[in-house]
C-alpha cells in the first residue's frame, strides 16, 4: 500500500485491531477496547467487523460464529436474555459501576441482534462461502424471530442494568432539545433502520438458501410505514420516541445510521445528508453525537456532544451507500486528520470544533485503542476509494478530487485473489486489478484513464 497523507492512521488502526483480537476456541473476535472493555461486546464486535469489510471477511465470519454460540435460548429478565437475542457483553465476573450491576453474560441491547443479521448478509455479499453461511441459518432464523417480534423499544426491567440499550448507552444520552431526558420505554430511530435492514437482508439470505421467508418483507414495510408517520420532526428524523411516543427532537448523529438501511427514500436520504452537514453536527473533526443547539450539548460529555470515530464512520459508510460520495469522503477526511493529530483514533474525543482548536480535545477516560474506532479508519479508506463490493461486482466511484491526493491500495482481499485500485489526485480511476471471475463496474463522472494512456 502506498501511503497517502494519513496513511499512518490506517497503519496504526490495523495494528490496534490486531492487538485487540481475542480467541474463542478456533474463532477470533475484536475485543471492544482497552482498558475498560477488553472482552466480547455484541454491538462493538459486529460493527468492527462490518466497518472493516472487505479487509476483515474472516473476522466477520468468526465474530458471527462466536456470538451465535451465546445467542439467547430462554427468557431471563435478570440477564435480559430472550430466544434469538444476541448478547451485549460477556465478562468472567460481571461488571459493577455505581448502582449498575451487570451479570457475566448480559443481553441488555436492543440493536445487536439485527446487526448480527446485517453482518451475516454483508459477509455473504462480500464472498463468505455458502459452506460457512449454511451452519449459521438456524441462528439467523432465531435472530429474525426476535427482530420480527420486537417493536424496537427497550426498558431496563432489573433496576440495575443499562438504562439506555442502544450504542449511546449512558444514562443521560437520549435528550430533548430543551435538555429533558426521554422516559422509557424508548424506541431509537437507528434501531428502526437496523430492524428494517435485517428483515430485508434476512429474507434475501433465506431465499438464496431455499428457506421460507414468511412475512419478513411485509414486517419490514410495516416498520418503514410507522417510522415515516412518527419520527420526522422539522425535516429530519428524531433520535427516538419516548414512552408517550413523543419524538425526541434533538438533532443528533443517530439519524446518520439510517442511511443505506433501505428505510429512507432517496429524497429522505438527501434530507438527512444535508442535515448532517450543518455545523451544529459536523465539527471539522467528525460528527458530533448531539447538536450544539441542544440544551444538553456538552463537548466533553460521553454521548451528548462528543465525537466518536465509529459513529462518524457509520455516517461515512451510509453516505457512500446512498450516493453522496463527495460528502462521505469529506467527512471521512475529517476523521483521518483528527487521527493524525492525535496519533490514532481513540474511543471518542471532545466535540470542540476545528474552528476553535487546532487539534481534537482529548476525552480523559477514552479507551485507546478501541476496536470500532480502529475499524473506522478502514471504512474511511474504502470511502476515499469509492469502493463497494456487492456479490461478484466491484463498484469504484471515488470522490473528485481525492481528499488526500493520489492513492493506490493493493492487497484488498476478495474471494479468488486480491484487488488493487489506484486513483489520481483528481479522483480519476487509473487502475483496477480484480480477481479473475469478478466483474468490475466503474461509475464514472468524467473519464476513465487507462493505465497505458
Structural features, described:
The structure is a single chain. By secondary structure, the protein is α+β, with helices and mostly antiparallel strands. It folds into 2 domains: 7-385, Glycosyltransferase; 387-453. The chain is 35% helix and 14% strand. The protein contains 12 helices and 19 strands. The chain has helices at 7-19, 42-51, 57-69, 112-125, 130-133, 137-149, 189-208, 216-230, 266-276, 309-321, 325-342, 371-385; strands spanning 21-24, 27-30, 40-41, 89-90, 95-97, 100-102, 105-106, 153-154, 186-188, 232-233, 236-237, 240-241, 247-248, 387-390, 393-396, 407-414, 417-423, 429-433, 439-442. The strands form 7 sheets. Strands 8-9-12-13 form a 4-stranded antiparallel β-sheet. Strands 3-4-7 form a 3-stranded antiparallel β-sheet. Strands 14-15-19 form a 3-stranded mixed β-sheet. Helix 3 (57-69) packs antiparallel against helix 4 (112-125). The longest helix is centred in the middle third of the chain and has 20 residues, at 189-208.
Strand and helix map with partners:
Elements: H1 7-19, E1 21-24, E2 27-30, E3 40-41, H2 42-51, H3 57-69, E4 89-90, E5 95-97, E6 100-102, E7 105-106, H4 112-125, H5 130-133, H6 137-149, E8 153-154, E9 186-188, H7 189-208, H8 216-230, E10 232-233, E11 236-237, E12 240-241, E13 247-248, H9 266-276, H10 309-321, H11 325-342, H12 371-385, E14 387-390, E15 393-396, E16 407-414, E17 417-423, E18 429-433, E19 439-442
Parallel strand pairs: 15-19
Antiparallel strand pairs: 1-2, 3-4, 4-7, 5-6, 8-9, 9-12, 10-11, 12-13, 14-15, 16-17, 17-18
Amino acid at each position: 500500500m502506498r501511503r497517502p497523507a494519513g496513511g499512518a492512521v490506517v497503519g496504526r488502526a490495523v495494528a490496534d485491531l490486531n492487538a485487540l483480537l481475542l480467541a474463542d476456541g478456533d474463532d477470533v473476535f475484536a475485543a471492544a477496547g482497552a482498558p475498560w472493555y477488553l472482552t466480547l461486546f455484541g454491538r462493538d464486535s459486529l460493527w468492527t467487523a462490518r466497518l472493516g469489510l472487505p479487509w476483515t471477511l474472516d473476522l466477520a465470519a468468526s465474530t458471527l460464529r462466536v456470538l451465535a454460540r451465546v445467542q439467547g435460548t430462554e427468557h431471563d429478565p435478570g440477564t435480559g436474555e430472550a430466544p434469538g437475542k444476541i448478547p451485549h457483553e460477556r465478562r468472567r465476573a460481571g461488571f459493577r459501576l455505581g448502582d449498575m450491576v451487570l451479570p457475566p453474560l448480559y443481553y441488555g441491547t436492543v440493536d445487536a441482534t439485527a446487526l448480527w443479521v446485517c453482518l451475516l448478509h454483508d459477509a455473504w455479499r462480500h464472498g463468505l462461502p455458502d459452506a460457512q453461511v449454511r451452519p449459521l441459518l438456524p441462528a439467523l432464523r432465531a435472530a429474525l424471530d426476535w427482530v420480527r417480534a420486537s417493536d424496537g423499544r427497550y426498558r431496563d426491567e432489573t433496576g440495575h442494568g443499562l438504562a439506555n440499550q442502544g450504542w449511546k448507552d449512558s444514562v443521560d444520552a437520549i435528550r430533548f432539545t430543551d435538555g429533558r431526558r426521554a422516559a422509557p420505554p424508548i424506541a431509537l430511530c437507528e434501531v428502526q433502520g437496523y430492524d428494517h435492514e435485517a428483515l430485508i437482508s434476512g429474507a434475501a439470505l433465506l431465499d438464496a438458501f431455499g428457506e421460507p421467508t414468511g412475512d419478513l418483507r411485509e414486517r419490514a414495510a410495516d416498520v418503514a410505514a410507522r417510522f415515516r408517520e412518527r419520527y420526522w420532526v422539522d425535516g429530519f428524523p428524531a433520535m427516538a420516541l419516548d414512552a408517550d411516543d413523543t419524538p425526541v427532537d434533538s438533532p443528533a448523529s443517530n439519524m446518520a445510521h439510517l442511511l443505506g438501511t433501505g428505510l429512507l427514500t432517496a429524497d429522505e436520504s438527501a434530507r438527512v445528508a444535508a442535515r448532517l452537514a450543518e455545523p451544529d453536527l459536523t465539527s471539522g473533526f467528525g460528527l458530533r453525537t448531539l447538536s450544539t443547539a441542544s440544551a444538553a450539548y456538552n463537548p466533553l460529555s460521553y454521548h451528548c456532544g462528543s465525537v466518536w470515530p465509529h459513529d462518524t464512520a457509520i455516517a461515512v459508510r451510509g453516505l457512500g451507500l446512498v450516493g453522496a460520495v463527495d460528502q462521505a469522503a469529506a467527512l471521512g477526511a475529517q476523521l483521518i486528520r483528527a487521527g493524525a493529530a492525535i496519533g490514532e483514533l481513540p474511543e471518542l474525543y471532545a466535540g470542540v470544533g476545528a474552528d476553535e482548536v487546532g487539534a481534537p480535545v482529548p476525552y480523559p477516560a477514552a479507551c485507546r485503542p478501541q476496536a470500532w474506532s480502529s475499524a473506522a479508519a478502514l471504512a474511511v479508506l474504502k470511502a476515499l476509494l469509492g469502493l463497494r463490493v456487492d456479490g461478484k461486482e466491484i463498484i469504484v466511484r471515488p470522490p473528485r478530487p481525492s481528499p488526500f491526493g493520489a492513492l493506490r491500495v493493493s492487497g484488498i482481499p476478495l474471494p479468488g485473489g486480491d484487488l488493487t485500485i489506484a486513483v489520481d489526485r483528481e479522483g480519476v480511476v487509473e487502475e483496477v486489478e480484480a480477481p479473475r471471475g469478478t466483474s468490475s463496474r466503474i461509475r464514472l463522472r468524467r473519464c476513465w484513464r487507462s493505465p497505458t494512456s
